[in-house]
Design a protein that fits this description.
Shape: elongated
Mean pLDDT: 81
Strand content: 5-15%
Strand order of the largest sheet: 1-2-3-5-4
Distance between the termini: 24 Å
Structural class: alpha+beta
Number of strands: 5
Number of domains: 2
Low-confidence stretches: none
Order of helices and strands: HHHHHHHHHHEHEEHEEH
Helix content: 55-70%
């Protein structure tokens, strides 16, 4: 849009200047008013209604308007020629390369028709210089489209390559962290568990309870690490949140007696939102399996108008009165929700039985 704004204002100023200093038609004043109104109206429309920038019908109307100005000037070497070329900017950069070229060919033929309508005659075709001039004028629109479309395609390829490089770098870092967790931190936790297990039969009374509690915490820490490692190694690209949660439910079902049902009607989400939404849903599902002693767990992904939501409901023991020491899962879930502007609520069911984790995603997620 910036390119259109700058070039159209400049081209309109040049056209007005040419009409002022050089008599072109008997109604130059009318043409000055017409080009001024057209320039202001077209730029205002494209600026205030952004969807017009990608609307072929708007491009067509814009192109026909500038061709009409050229025809009104009664000369194919019109003062409006450069202004006419600005009508090619949005189609050239908004269409795929081949479609943009097709648009350029049609525009070129339309301009040739305007040239034939004005002063192009047999004398022009018999003069080498005049023939070269008209050939150049006819070919320039296609060359402009070719250059802009090619530049747009190159920029798109560069953006894709940058995104691919960023994804590779992120995946490489995620893999490195996963290896560190698995090969270093988890091994230390395992070693500590073995040491405490060796003491388990040698202590009694209150000390035995403390050892049992420490062993339980180490087992939970190991399980949390397994989850983190699995999530770090699990790519999100190309798969929906619903599919990922179904896969996670399948993994947890193999180590749990709970029946897990995932109902997915949420569709696609923006990648930045989907990544956090999946992590929150996976954490809620994992917590329900590990801590709730539930027999049934429901995961519902749905849309309601402009919003999307994920609900994880279980029929287990409900929320504990005191948060489990060393547990950062809920804090992490709330932080992720804040990051994407989502709302997260966690509540117990009737009579304190069961837990509902309800994630309401931002409006733009529902519109994706």
């Amino acid at each position: 849009m910036s390119l259109l704004l700058m070039t159209r204002l400049l081209a309109a100023a040049v056209a007005v200047a040419l009409l002022v200093v050089h008599r072109v038609t008997a109604f130059d004043t009318t043409l000055i008013v017409a080009v001024s109104v057209f320039t202001a109206a077209s730029l205002a429309a494209f600026s205030w209604i952004p969807r017009l920038q990608s609307a072929p019908l708007a491009w067509l109307v814009d192109g026909l308007a500038v061709l009409a100005l050229v025809a009104a000037s009664e000369d194919w070497r019109s003062p409006f020629y450069v202004l006419m070329l600005t009508a090619l900017i949005l189609p050239s950069t908004g269409l795929a390369f081949r479609r943009a070229l097709a648009w350029g060919v049609m525009f070129m033929l339309a301009y040739l028709g305007v040239a034939l309508y004005t002063e192009l005659d047999a004398n022009t075709l018999r003069s080498t210089i005049r023939l070269e001039t008209i050939a150049t004028h006819v070919m320039v629109p296609f060359v402009v489209v070719l250059a802009l479309a090619y530049a747009a395609e190159v920029l798109e390829r560069l953006r894709d390559e940058r995104l691919r490089s960023e994804r590779l770098a992120i995946e490489s870092e995620r893999q490195r962290i996963a290896w560190e967790l698995h090969d270093s931190a988890k091994q230390r936790v395992h070693a500590a568990h073995l040491v405490l297990s060796a003491l388990h039969g040698q202590v009694a009374g209150a000390q035995a309870g403390l050892v049992d509690h420490a062993l339980a915490e180490l087992r939970a820490a190991g399980a949390d690490m397994d989850t983190s490692v699995a999530e770090l190694r699990e790519p999100l690209e190309g798969r929906s949140v619903g599919r990922l949660l179904e896969e996670r439910a399948g993994q947890l079902a193999s180590v749990s007696d709970a029946e897990i049902v995932v109902r997915d009607a949420i569709g696609e989400l923006p990648t930045s939102i989907a990544a956090h939404a999946y992590r929150i849903g996976a954490e809620a599902l994992t917590n329900a399996v590990r801590h709730s002693e539930a027999k049934h767990i429901d995961v519902v992904l749905e849309r309601n108008g402009t919003t999307a939501s994920i609900k994880v409901r279980d029929d287990g023991c409900g929320l504990p009165a005191i948060r489990r020491p060393g547990s950062n899962g809920l804090r992490s879930m709330r932080a992720r929700a804040e990051t994407i502007g989502a709302t997260l609520s966690i509540s117990s069911g009737d009579g304190g039985r069961g837990t509902l984790v309800h994630l309401t995603l931002p409006t733009e997620a529902g519109n994706a």
